[in-house]
Prior knowledge:
Blueprint: H1 2-18, E1 30-31, E2 34-37, E3 40-43, E4 49-56, E5 70-79, E6 82-92, E7 113-119, E8 124-133, H2 141-149, E9 158-167, E10 172-179, H3 181-185, H4 195-200, H5 202-226, H6 248-262, H7 268-280, H8 294-318, H9 321-350, E11 369-370
Helix pairs in contact: 5-6, 6-7, 8-9
Amino acid sequence: MRAIAGAITALVLAATATAPAAGKAVVGDRVRDHVTVGQKQIPLPAGEWTVTGIGTQPFEMAEIGAFGTIENMVLARRAGDRIVAVVEINANAVPVNDGWGRTRSCERGSQYILVTRYRSGWDLSCLFVQATATGAAEGPPAWQATRRATAGATVPENWLTAGFRMSDRQDLVDIRYHFDPLLLTGEGVAGGWDADAVRADPRKLHAAEALTIWAMGFDGRIERGIRNQLRGEPAPMPVQAHYRSETPQVDGKLLALDRMHAAGALTTAEYVAQQRQALAEIPAVIENPGGLPLAMQKNISFRVFGSTVDYALAFFVTLSNPLSTYITASIVAIHSVIFVLNDNFWEERFASQSTRDANRIVDFAYIGGTE
Length: 371
């Protein structure tokens, strides 16, 4: 009996040692709805996805502090012998204390669209839509494993990519959803997918717009996933995404209100009142269409207002237009020099110590490159 008990104990211990952690996917798993990476839920479009590569990013940055590793996972979706969609995920394994800085992908570049929900030294939420050339970069180890695992399958030369970067003071998710353009065009289209080519071809433009609308309705799921709050039905694939309007955040609220009213959680009066409020809401988007940086625009606005007040006070005292103008010009010149010196001092003192004042760039190895 002792021998049998010992054998059973040994088997249990062996199984425990070799079994993957609960909820943690391994290569070859077929998953739906969402997958867990870095202890954070990552939403997936509806349907079945196969985990094709798992690894860590070759990333070092002492300024970030102890972050463990950047966990990297790639999932693929096939239709016959063709890879029609790929998801690449990056997430930190250990929370940090002072934020994750910024990414080049959330600065104006070759994207079709770039939307920033919020941005500070500690927090960032942005999404972008762009073309990705498959063979433009070697990619992270998880992508290299994916290429080996899907050898023989047809891979598009270009993807249409919806990318999301969200971070707070502790955690980070950097996710890119790559889709075969055929899913959004319904037929092959010749030529490249750079911004000029997309503007010149109505079919490509429609595809880019459809993916943009899908992405703007999907980013709320990323927000909930980083907090492990994903519940309910997954979002459809972009080709199937039929929203009521071009404001999918509002549409999502309306659908949620429909479900709550049907379940009896809202009275008819509450349901109608909140419907009206939802229809009047405009999603928050921070978008600088170009021109002077926002900080410079704010400084100019402040100086114009301040100079007007300075002139009014000087004229009240001197009752002389030339003398008031001279005093105001002197104040503007002196304050401008003091402002620059003070700004440079604080930048040099704290920029290397805290992401609050530093444009620290935190990027990883990604699949392919921009068109």
